[in-house]
Amino acid sequence: MSSTKPATAVPSERVLDDKWDQCVADLLVKAGIGFSAGVVGSVLLFRRRTWPVWAGTGFGIGHAYSECQRQFHPSVAFPPRSSPQ
User: Fold this and answer.
1) Which of 19-23, 58-62, 78-82 has the lowest mean pLDDT?
2) DSSP letters of 14-83?
3) CA 15, CA 20: separation in Å to the nearest integer?
4) Neighbour tally for 31: CB within 10 Å
5) Which letter does DSSP use for residue 4 in this model?
6) Where are the transmembrane segments (predicted)?
7) What SS3 state is found at 6?
8) 39 CB neighbour count, 10 Å cutoff
């Protein structure tokens, strides 16, 4: 006979911690990518102005925020689409 261990439940604190870790990591990565894209756009296209850097960082933070909302509230993230008439 094979002895199998029963599946143990994951504590809710652990699930919440994993979600927060994912959100913080996602925020850092996407804000960094937005910042980098803003710096490149600023240097190449906009004569070294600062607003592309802030805009790129803001877009990265906003996208990370929406991804975190989707993780914490999966049923609310995608509202049903209305069918075209």
Assistant:
1) 78-82
2) HHHHHHHHHHHHHHHHHHHHHHHHHHHHHHHTSTT-SHHHHHHHHHHHHHHHHHHHHHH-HHHHSPPPPP
3) 9
4) 19
5) -
6) 27-46
7) coil
8) 16
Q: Which residue has the tokens 């803001």?
A: 58
Q: Which distant-in-sequence residues (6+ apart) come within 8 Å of 30 by Cβ? A: 60, 61, 63, 64, 67
Amino acid present at 42: S
pLDDT of residue 80: 61
Q: Which residue type occupies 61?
A: I
**Which helix or strand (DSSP H or E) is residue 3 part of?**
none
pLDDT at 7 over 80: no
